[in-house]
Amino acid sequence: MSDPDATLSDLLHETRTFPPPPELAEHANVTAEAFETAERDRLAFWERAAERLSWTARWDRALDWELPFAHWFPGGRLNVAYNCVDRHIEAGHGDRVALHWEGEPGDTRVITYQDLYGQVCQAANALAELGVRAGDRVAIYLPMIPEVVVAMLACARIGAPHTVVFGGFSAEALRTRIQDCDAQVVITADGGYRRGAPSPLKANVDAAVADCPEVRHVLVVRRTGQDIDWHERDLWWHEVVDRQSREHSPDAFESDHPLFILYTSGTTGKPKGILHTTGGYLTFVAWTHWAVFDLKPERDVFWCTADVGWVTGHSYIVYGPLANGASSVMYEGTPDTPHKGRWWELVEKHRVSILYTAPTAIRTCMKWGAEIPAEFDLSSLRLLGTVGEPINPEAWMWYRENIGRGECPIVDTWWQTETGGILISPLPGVHTTKPGSAIRPLPGISAAIYNDEGQVLPRKDTAGYLVLTEPWPGMMRTIWGDDDRYREVYWSRYPDAYFAGDGAKWDTDGDIWLLGRVDDVMNISGHRISTIEVESALVSHPKVAEAAVVGAADPTTGQAIVAFVIPRGATRTGTDGEQFVRELRDHVTHEIGPIAKPKQILVVAELPKTRSGKIMRRLLRDVAANRELGDVTTLTDSSVMDLIKEKLPTASRED
Ligand code: PRX
């Protein structure tokens, strides 16, 4: 958890404001009137948003709401892939570029809507040939190559929910996800490029499916040409997909048909399979993408730099932009390969007009220096966005000045895997922005800030817990296979509202400032990782007796993982200790993936606990942040903290 008090005091000093550029405001897709329309009749407002899509049967009602389960547009039928591809061709836009794809090594592909149609049809036909039927789950573990978009749309086309697993996750993480949703087909690649080195995707799949007898086929895209092992269940994508027909007539599915499951960390060791369905989700991502980014599909070039393995990639690389007929840039690699100006080179090359990225990436670019983007022509940019974590005013200003020429509005968009799409954000043609504020809930979104007792706080200079008090079309349907956990996690803290797990504040103008997580979920470079997940990984190491993990503030990644570990047997010190710490970091990488590798591991003899045996994370956070310790009177033995503090100088740290 970040420190809400520190964040708050930072933000209280922020007084700069930036009104919308008049030219943008004049032609904006959405004006202030939308708030009044939505206020008058929220459901009618979302019905109008749904009308932007093509349905084969209109819905009977806007919403069936049995708290906490929402069924949007019941009776409505549609096909997501048809909406994202076919209908744009029918409207005469087949030649429009859907994806300007750039591989890390410098290879490129330009894919028009017509091309995408042929490829999605072929992949859909291939999946059908492999016996995948509507409702069957397909796991996708691919790098950022066009096939990942094709695979997702092919699944959507035949009604087979996909679960995309981020390519940086380990074989173990992949295995638990495949097993949890019982996927029978896995789509992967031999590897993908990251900083020039091919990643071992296929090898990870081999290790994962060794324990998944239900997996019948592994479809492998050849990307790097690296050596891989081959098994009976394996099939090359180019052998199975390329020979298929480039036509496929899609079925329409009920609005509530499952579209995808995306796993995200919660406060337990077991990731939650967030289920999104068809009609509500697509309505919501299409509308929010069009409204928040003021998308003009005929002339904008949109670039969301996220990985498709996270929800940002699902909603704002794939489903939102394609449903709107947008032209997007998609880039395979890291921003510093082969040089630190790679992103800006791509903005210049493709005349990107809307850029959507994460605060952590902005802070990294700040560290590299403003002279790098200054070498490129960024004059095509007209709108900038951020997502994933609170953005500090300094990074916001840097982004505006050095990337946005001091002219582009910035939309700081707050949302979650669970919310499907953006809920809180300025509208670029409507709102005056402030560095660090996500400004207002979108039209049709009912956000509130509650205090501990569940009372609504007035929208003026108050801080508490962010909640959503009415359903919205993009909201999750449930946790895959676990309705009780869905109720428990999101709807038990306050019985009448969705509890987001974030602290937030209304300022004196009634604008919202997000203050970070209020639970045991960390936010590392905009990626959610639970403390308990990392703890479970650490204690699964044979030499670890106990472990506690906290997030500490980090100037680049927002938060960094700090672990306190009690070893089995004698405490390991000196060189032996360093080796031990290295082993543990590798072990976490193996169990979860490199994103979960602790930045710092403190080997300690004891951990501070309450009388009931609960680890006092607040104190550990204090140690991690190297601050004065708080009240220790509820500890069983307050000297434990001295022991921990003594350990600080010998701690291993990776810089
Ligand atoms: O804490 C909030 C933070 O990211 C969490 C959601 O993480 P995830 O489901 O991985 O989705 C990330 C991309 C949508 C939230 O609970 N968060 C996301 N956007 C913002 C944010 N915190 C502050 N400001 C934001 N704009």
How much of the residues is beta strand, in percent? 15-25%
Number of strands: 31
Largest sheet: 7 strands, mixed
Radius of gyration: 24 Å
Average per-residue pLDDT, rounded, comes to 93
Q: Would you give the CATH topology of the domain at 112-251?
A: Rossmann fold
The amount of helix comes to 25-40%
- What oligomeric state do the depicted chains represent? single chain
Task: Name the poorly predicted regions.
Answer: 650-655
* Sheet with most strands: strand arrangement: 5-4-17-16-18-19-20
Tally of individual helices: 21
CATH architecture title of the domain at 112-251: 3-Layer(aba) Sandwich
Domain Acetyl-coenzyme A synthetase N-terminal: 33-84
EC number: 6.2.1.1
Modified residues (N6-acetyllysine): 614
Protein name: Acetyl-coenzyme A synthetase
Provide a short characterization of the protein structure.
With 655 residues, this protein is α/β, with parallel strands linked by helices. Among the domains are: 112-251, Rossmann fold; 541-653, GMP Synthetase, Chain A, domain 3 (2-Layer Sandwich).
